[in-house]
Amino acid sequence: MKNKKxxxxxxxxxxxxxxxxxxxxxEKDNAIxxxxxxxxxxxxxxxxxxxxxxxxxxxxxxxxxxxxLLACVIYKxxxxxxxxxxxxxxxxxxxxxxxxxxxFIETKNAFDTLLIxxxxxxxxxxxxxxxxxxxxxxxxYKPTAEEWKKIEDKKEKPKDDKNNKVNKMxxxxxxxxxxxQIRKQLKEIN
Length: 190
Hints:
Layout: H1 4-22, H2 26-42, H3 46-52, E1 55-61, H4 67-77, E2 87-88, E3 94-100, H5 101-136, H6 145-153, H7 161-189
Antiparallel strand pairs: 1-3, 2-3
């Protein structure tokens, strides 16, 4: 296992190599000069060091409604800088960008993992919104007195954690909907 100093030096070298490849003007020239100096000091081949972290164009396919999420993941994990462009095909199902191979793999894995989490949370929020809509518009069935007695006579089953989470989210959404209505009414009064 590499010690901390070697790991920091390797990360720093990677950043300097990227600057040498993607930098502009003087910053690019300085980065190349620093790399040549490091190569000479450590008896390394300059061309091999520069090609070890070659930047290439990569692409990831996704569904049209997932492309915004993918773009955010690319900017975070592919370490793109401000102004770097992410290309896309005409129907936004393929995004392409330039990065190193190791960062591409990290970006692809991050997108796959985050997409699974996104879909789970999206389902929860949709369920909570449906519940909130039913609560707000009083669309639940109201049991009669006899039905309530039957319900009370039965032992209550513990609710599962998912329903509790959905119900809490729904109550928050209902409160938010009421807040919006109050604001609209206040604007109408003024």
